[in-house]
Amino acid sequence: MSAVRVNTLGPLQITAGTTLTVAAGKQRAVLAVLLLYAGRVVPLHRIVDELWEQAPRTAVSLVRQYVFHLRRILEPAKAAGLEIHTLAGGYQLSLPAAAGDADEFHRLVLLGRRQVTEGRPAEARLTADRALALWRGPAFADVPAGRLIAAERERLDEARLGLQELAATADMRSGDVTGAVGRLRALVIEHPLRENLHEALVLALLTAGRRTDAMIAYRRARATLLGELGLEPGAGLRRLERAIRDDDVSRFRLPAQPAACRWPAGCAPSCRYAG
Question: Which residues are within 8 A (CB) of 141 and not within 5 positions of it... i.e. 6 or more apart?
């Protein structure tokens, strides 16, 4: 009997000895919703609301057809514990614990944070890189996004960003300031309106003794914030600018704890991904 693997950090993928292909978009959407609520009954009306903004009169019948076809596709995984059950008013997906890449990602996030907190940054860097390597693209990349899937993508993206920031912190604590700068530059490019990322990049450059580069990074951050949001930099970036001008990095220290975890505690609708 082959173990079941559910991958959602990229295109939705189910394997049980072989890859089980769910070709139809609506069927993938139904499966994704059942995965979010794994172990819980999902009312039919909730699935209908996810699939259509204006549901057709045949919506309930269509959902039942989608589930019928999903059961046939997922049959090879039934013996390993993945099965769709019909219960009063809806459906329930049974799924073995820790069967998914999102579960593994969450476990590694918690481990990496603990390693940083316990003063083991080199281990935290390896843990963070293992977790980030699980991503094959945007979460649920090939699933038509209704309200629930869109919200889950956003939560997972926030968790990924939080781990990337933690990895940069681990780089700094390991003495690999160059590695931290590289990670933070990439994050700033990807998320140009997040002031905390600009601040972390300026600090890393200043810590590395790259005063000129730090000032350039600060000015770019200020131009972006002013141009896009109409806002001046906050207190943290302004303090860093003064330190650059005074050539004084002594007042800045790495935080005693990594940034607050971006993984949602008790994220709805499912608790599978929550701490």
Answer: 10, 11, 12
Query: How far is the C-alpha of 233 from the C-alpha of 50, rounded, in Å?
Result: 40
Let me know if 227 is exposed, middle or buried by CB neighbors in 10 A (0-12, 13-18, 19+): exposed
Tokens of 58: 């045949």
Query: What are 226's strand-pairing partners?
Result: none
Instruction: Report d(CA 275, CA 266) in Å as an integer.
Output: 7
Q: How many CA atoms lie within 13 A of 252 on its CB side?
A: 24
For each of the chain's 275 residues, which pLDDT tens digit applies? 578 999 999 999 999 989 999 999 999 999 999 999 999 999 999 999 999 999 999 999 999 999 999 999 999 999 889 999 999 889 999 998 878 999 999 999 999 999 999 999 999 999 999 999 999 999 999 999 899 999 999 999 999 999 999 999 999 988 899 999 999 999 999 999 999 999 999 999 988 889 999 999 999 999 999 999 999 999 999 999 999 988 776 666 554 444 444 433 333 333 343 33
Q: What is the DSSP string of 36-64?
A: HTTTSEEEHHHHHHHH-SS--TTHHHHHH
**Could you give the count of Cα atoms lying within 13 Å of 180 in the half-sphere of its Cβ?**
27
Structure tokens at 239: 């303090």
The two beta strands, 83-87 and 90-94, are antiparallel
β 19-20/5-7 pair status: unpaired
Q: What is the CA radius of gyration of the chain?
A: 22
Structure tokens at 96: 């073995």
